[in-house]
Specification:
globular; 8 helices; mainly alpha
């Protein structure tokens, strides 16, 4: 059963990038980091970024069901990584309002998008239903599925995850040098 109506999911899927820019502006306007918040928040963001990088090194979109790497622990490691990056930046910013904004965007935009993507994967890959029974959507399991596939740099580059690294570096530089 769908939690979000498909028309809503389709509409918010188009808002992901726009909402990201809006959050970026709010972040730039409201953040007031200090040394302690940076020391705690930036490593949390870095962990999220590493999770995203690990995931993209296994992801072959629409050509095979990815069950290796972090996908053996959680069905949506890219979104979990994004959540960790946002949480880390919210911690670094020292503004609960930003954490609340990130949470609202995640709940109202990213969760419906996750649902749409999983509906697409169910249609594309007959094994997805079995995979979804074994692997949780956002909270990792401690009993990963076994897989022999390894991280591939070509997939990391193909999936353009280096853009997230550049965004992280820009955000970290902003916090450290301009605030």
């Amino acid at each position: 059963m769908s939690v979000f109506p498909k028309p809503y999911g389709d509409a918010v899927a188009r808002l992901r990038v726009t909402s990201g820019f809006a959050l970026l502006l709010a972040f730039a306007w409201l953040s007031h980091p200090d040394a302690q918040s940076l020391a705690i928040g930036l490593p949390v963001s870095a962990i999220g970024l590493l999770l995203r990088a690990w995931a993209t090194g296994h992801l072959e979109k629409n050509s095979r069901l990815t069950e290796s790497g972090p996908y053996a622990y959680v069905r949506n490691p890219l979104y979990l990584g994004t959540l960790l990056v946002a949480a880390g930046f919210a911690i670094a910013s020292r503004r609960w309002l930003l954490a609340g904004l990130f949470a609202v965007v995640f709940l109202l935009i990213y969760l419906p998008v996750i649902e749409l993507e999983e509906q697409h994967l169910r249609k594309l890959f007959p094994d997805f239903a079995d995979y979804a029974k074994r692997v949780p959507p956002l909270w990792p399991t401690f009993r990963p599925a076994k897989s022999k596939r390894r991280f591939q740099w070509r997939l990391y580059v193909h999936n353009r995850e280096y853009q997230a690294l550049l965004g992280f570096l820009a955000g970290a530089a902003f916090l450290v040098f301009w605030k």
